[in-house]
Design goal:
Elements: H1 14-26, E1 45-49, E2 52-55, E3 60-63, H2 66-69, H3 78-88, H4 99-111, E4 117-121, H5 124-139, E5 143-147, H6 156-159, E6 165-167, E7 173-175, H7 184-188, E8 190-193, H8 198-207, E9 212-217, H9 231-243, E10 247-251, H10 263-267, E11 273-277, E12 287-291, H11 293-296, H12 318-330, H13 333-356, E13 362-366, E14 369-373, H14 382-385, H15 389-404, E15 407-408, E16 415-416, H16 423-439
Parallel strand pairs: 3-15, 5-8, 5-9, 9-10, 10-11
Antiparallel strand pairs: 1-2, 2-3, 4-12, 6-7, 11-12, 13-14, 14-16
Helix pairs in contact: 3-12, 4-12, 8-9, 13-16
The structure holds pyridoxal-5'-phosphate.
Length: 449
């Protein structure tokens, strides 16, 4: 059912409403991916310009989503446009390899310490799937451990546990499956743990050691609250996994954007396999699985056939390879430093503003990533990050308000910065938040809007 703008304040999005009506005649739910924000209706974009989006009604919005954190350099980054434009006339996909894939691989292996060998695929989902298969082939075990609430894409074993677990009568945790009808056997092979709980992690890994191929960890899981890992937790994970021959897979599809060498390097994690995506494609579809030469040999050695067959019609297509290389070359240590400083500043501004108004909002995140929570205290666990209906309503209310102020903020996932954003752009975000809290008092009542 089409939801009209609830408070009658948004006539500006009328072309989007018309397009949504058309979309509803051809797509289930009216759109082509579950993650599209439909509150109160999807906003259809006409184009992107640097840090901004322009929608079909010509409204300009500062883009704090950046296609789910993908666009490190924002929209229409000139060096990528030039390189891709000149590449197009030479061909966009071949069954043969090109020099472009080697150039991107050389760049990534030279800066991500745990990646000696790499394979390219088309999405993060695919890359996580191949990392899990690689860990299984390498260890000869089938189960994985993962952390409640973390999003790892749509492979059945990566999806189970994304929404937490059910407690069985004997106290065991049964991973919640991604959809009704998903094979129940999947739940047997997915252990759901709590992020940052080192003692429980050690116990679970020790008890299940013989069947565990890998621990799958996103170093700062966005949907589970965008909470940083504790050093002690990371250290224990590596020690215990190593003791039992369990591989560690770092899913950095989102968090590679934390630093020049990624998130694992930042937090002292040395994974056996690392999954990347998003920023390494420069705005084009991509995923990658990398790791030590020893483990990555499951995908192919010189003398034997691969233990895991990894193909993909569009894998390593030259467009994604070239765009990715240009994006990553431009992402120098100085660029990451600037993004980090801007992130620190914006998070501090938003936190101070919420405190000033004694309002139930708080902020988590690191580097160029942040999440605003409709909660007085920043959550420290997935359970604490889950939004109650009144909190969700408050967050949606804020996102709608910010949209009218020209800011696009995701309501339940990581927001992020891009290199074309200026300090003035970010001050505008903080000012708009201040205006919202000035106009709508929530002072310490945890109330509904
Ligand atoms: C941590 C993480 N892993 C995996 C994925 C899946 O990537 P893709 O959407 O490219 O399939 C995502 C996507 O948001 C992600 O954030």
């Amino acid at each position: 059912m089409l939801t009209e703008p609830a408070d009658g304040e948004e006539p500006a999005f009328s072309q989007s409403i018309n397009l949504f009506r058309r979309g509803q005649t051809v797509f289930p739910g009216g759109v082509t991916r579950a993650t599209v924000d439909k509150d109160p209706n999807p906003i259809y974009m006409s184009r992107g310009e640097g840090a901004y989006l322009v929608d079909v009604d010509e409204a300009r919005l500062l883009d704090l989503n950046n296609n789910f954190t993908t666009l490190l350099h924002g929209h229409g980054y000139e060096p990528i446009l030039e390189a891709v434009s000149s590449l197009l006339s030479t061909g966009t996909c071949f069954s043969n390899p090109t020099k472009h894939e080697i150039a991107l691989a050389e760049l990534l292996t030279s800066r991500i310490p745990s990646v000696e060998r790499i394979r390219f695929v088309n999405t993060g989902t695919e890359a996580v799937m191949f990392a899990i298969k690689a860990a299984r082939a390498f260890t000869g075990r089938s189960a994985i451990a993962r952390f409640a609430g973390a999003y790892h894409g749509a492979y059945d074993w990566a999806e189970a546990g994304q929404n937490g677990f059910e407690a069985a009568p004997d106290g065991r945790r049964i991973a919640r499956l991604g959809y009704q009808g998903a094979p129940s056997a999947v739940a047997n092979d997915v252990l759901v743990l709590d992020f940052n709980d080192a003692d429980a992690l050690e116990e679970a890994l020790t008890v299940n050691a013989e069947r565990l191929a890998a621990v799958l960890i996103d170093p700062m899981p966005s949907r589970a609250g965008l909470i940083e890992p504790a050093r002690e937790f990371i250290d224990r994970l590596m020690t215990v996994a190593d003791r039992h021959g369990i591989l560690v897979i770092a899913d950095e599809v989102l968090n590679l954007r934390q630093s020049f060498s990624g998130a694992s390097a930042r937090y002292g994690l040395t994974p056996d396999l690392l999954v990347a995506g998003k920023i390494i494609g420069g705005g084009f579809p991509i995923g990658a699985v990398g790791g030590s030469a020893k483990v990555m040999a499951v995908f192919g050695g010189d003398t034997r056939s691969p233990m895991v067959s990894q193909g993909g019609t569009f894998s390593a297509n030259p467009v994604s390879m070239v765009a990715g290389r240009i994006a990553m070359e431009a992402a120098t240590p100085a660029v990451f430093d600037r993004l980090e400083q801007q992130g620190v500043r914006l998070r501090a501004q938003l936190t101070a503003t919420a405190r000033k108004h004694n309002a139930p909002f708080s902020v988590t995140g690191a580097a160029s990533l942040l999440r605003l929570h409709p909660k007085s205290e920043p959550p420290r666990s997935f359970a604490a990050a889950v939004q109650r209906p009144d909190e969700l309503a408050r967050m949606r209310f804020l996102c709608r308000f910010l949209r009218r102020e020209g800011v696009l903020l995701p309501h339940d996932a990581a927001a992020c910065l891009s290199t074309p954003m200026t300090d003035m752009d970010l001050d505008h975000v903080a000012d708009a938040f201040d205006k919202f809290l000035t106009q709508h008092s929530f002072a310490s009542q945890e109330a509904q809007p």
